[in-house]
């Protein structure tokens, strides 16, 4: 007997208070042939019994427990045990909105060249208390095409991990989540993009992405800002080697201490800086680590050098992109944002 078309994989750890809601939202999905593979990662609360009850009541739910080893081991165990042609991710504290599975599977059906799809997500936290996270969600929701996802991959993680669905073939060719001192979901996305996997998003809110205070990405050092910059720098350096016609030389837009700290990670990968560029007259004319800080207006013209905007604030990032575009620079050809 053929297996289900879609496997939803869900790592679960001490989520007895939320996992029922997540499962209810999945089991209410219509128009999709699916299973849910929920792995209990050695929970110490009632997670295992909640999962067992759902598996008893609905044959679409399969569950088993493993010794506690963390979200990566649990996520990969769920993927390995799954049978579907398409594999979706879901966290045990999130909610699948109606039509999620059918819409994403439909995108993969309609676009055989695409290997991974996401969707727009609804922020499930407090926009006042968690303003930064909410802004990040709003930003990801603007990135719907492969080009937008690919060319913004070094700004932030462009496709929220709980929203993805992908072809099993991609998993077999490019590998599952990897263990390391880096965010495994961002690494997987960067690795698959580097490997040539094309990505799209459904232009609809299909997931509520909740933001509880104990969310792992808020508390584990694997997800802190420095870890994100370390892993993105490795992939950015390789991207520059393939796409920068002036390799290994780049021009850094921004000259503040944080910009320099993050950009300097590229030096270990053989990237060379021509200069820093800024709009602050107090910084222009200084020499930092042997490099001049120049007026931004002196940044290279299109075709004359490759620019890396390393200013992280949302307003400044957009303003720099507008400045470069007005000069005739093209995203991906003459510059790519890296913060």
UniProtKB/TrEMBL annotation:
Keywords: Glycosyltransferase, Transferase
GO molecular function, one term: glycosyltransferase activity
Domain Glycosyltransferase 2-like: residue ranges: 7-173
Domain of life: Bacteria
InterPro entries: Glyco_trans_2-like, Glycosyltransf_2, Nucleotide-diphossugar_trans
EC numbers, comma separated: 2.4.-.-
Record carries keyword Nucleotide-binding: no
EC class name: transferase
Family named by the database record: Belongs to the glycosyltransferase 2 family.
Name by which UniProt lists this protein: Putative glycosyltransferase EpsE
Originating species: Pseudodesulfovibrio hydrargyri
């Amino acid at each position: 007997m053929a297996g289900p078309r879609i496997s939803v994989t869900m790592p679960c750890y001490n989520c007895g208070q939320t996992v029922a809601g997540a499962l209810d939202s999945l089991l209410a999905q219509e128009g999709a042939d699916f299973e849910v593979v929920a792995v209990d990662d050695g929970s110490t609360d009632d997670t295992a019994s909640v999962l067992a009850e759902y598996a008893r009541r609905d044959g679409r739910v399969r569950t088993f427990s493993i010794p506690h080893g963390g979200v990566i081991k649990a996520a990969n165990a769920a993927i390995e045990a799954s049978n579907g042609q398409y594999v979706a991710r879901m966290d045990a504290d999130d909610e699948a909105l109606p039509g999620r599975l059918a819409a994403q599977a439909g995108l993969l059906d309609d676009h055989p060249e695409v290997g991974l799809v996401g969707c727009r997500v609804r922020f499930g936290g407090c926009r006042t208390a968690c303003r930064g996270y909410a802004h990040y969600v709003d930003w990801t929701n603007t990135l719907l095409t492969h080009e937008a996802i690919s060319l913004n991959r070094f700004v932030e993680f462009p496709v929220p991990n709980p929203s993805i669905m992908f072809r099993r073939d991609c998993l077999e060719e490019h590998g599952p989540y990897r263990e390391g001192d880096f965010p495994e979901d961002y690494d997987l996305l960067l690795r698959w993009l580097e490997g040539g996997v094309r990505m799209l998003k459904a232009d609809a809110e299909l997931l509520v992405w909740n933001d509880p205070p104990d969310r792992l990405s808020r508390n584990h050092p694997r997800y802190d800002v420095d870890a994100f910059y370390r892993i993105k720098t490795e992939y950015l350096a390789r991207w520059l080697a393939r796409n920068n016609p002036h390799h290994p030389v780049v021009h850094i837009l921004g000259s503040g201490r944080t910009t320099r700290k993050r950009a300097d990670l590229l030096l270990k990968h053989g990237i060379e800086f021509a200069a820093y560029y800024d709009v602050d007259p107090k910084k222009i004319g200084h020499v930092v680590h042997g490099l001049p800080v120049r007026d931004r207006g002196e940044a290279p013209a299109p075709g004359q050098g490759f620019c890396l905007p390393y200013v992280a604030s949302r307003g400044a990032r957009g303003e720099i992109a507008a400045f470069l575009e007005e000069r005739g620079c093209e995203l991906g050809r003459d510059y790519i944002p890296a913060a």
